[in-house]
Amino acid sequence: MFTKITTYFLFFCRFELEEMLILIQIAINDNTIALWSVKSGERLKELKGHSGSILCATFSPNGQLIVSGSKDKTIRIWDVKSGKNLKTLSGHSDSIRDVKYLSDGQTIVSGSYDKTIRVWDVKSGNEIQRLDGHPYFVTKVSISPDGNTIVSCSGGEIIQIWS
Question: 87: domain CATH number?
Fold first, then answer.
């Protein structure tokens, strides 16, 4: 079976969960996350709120939330069912390049062009920890299954391990 989804220019595409596809579409003045059904090809929801291009997004472990990062320097937490923006996290001084949930679903890790990694509490929206040390912008973050180690990559061909 092959389902073709036609939409605007896509900056980012990620397959998540069993029945949904998360697409971030970028058109002129349109910084939108679009959720599509993989089975039907139907557009299910649009999440709007970022004022800059969306560079990353992922579902929470239970599939009920989406976290996104943007050139507007914010991280947003969205309710999948309602499509509402539940929280906006601020603290980075440049674009958010990657966001990940810890397996507990209660903590988010973000990497930014401001050369920092930040750890956030989902419930309060507060920054728990700031990790400095990259000489260049952070491009990716990854978290060990036990949540005790963060690996980050930077534009200067550097990988750092935080524990």
Answer: 2.130.10.10
Cα separations in angstroms, 114 against 104, 110, 117, 135, 162: 26, 11, 9, 10, 17
> 95 in a domain, yes or no?
yes
Would you state the structure tokens that stand for residue 86, as one six-digit string? 């539940």
Least confident piece of the model among 16-20, 25-29, 71-75, 80-84: 25-29
Count of structural domains, the chain: 1
Cβ contact 66:59 at 8 Å: yes
Whether 107 is in a domain gets the answer yes
C-alpha 39/C-alpha 114 separation (Å) is: 39
Q: Tell me what the mean pLDDT of segment 78-85 comes to.
A: 93
pLDDT at 3: 53
* φ, ψ at 127 (rounded to 5°): -75, 125
Q: Which domain holds residue 58?
A: 52-162
Distance CA 137, CA 97 (A): 9
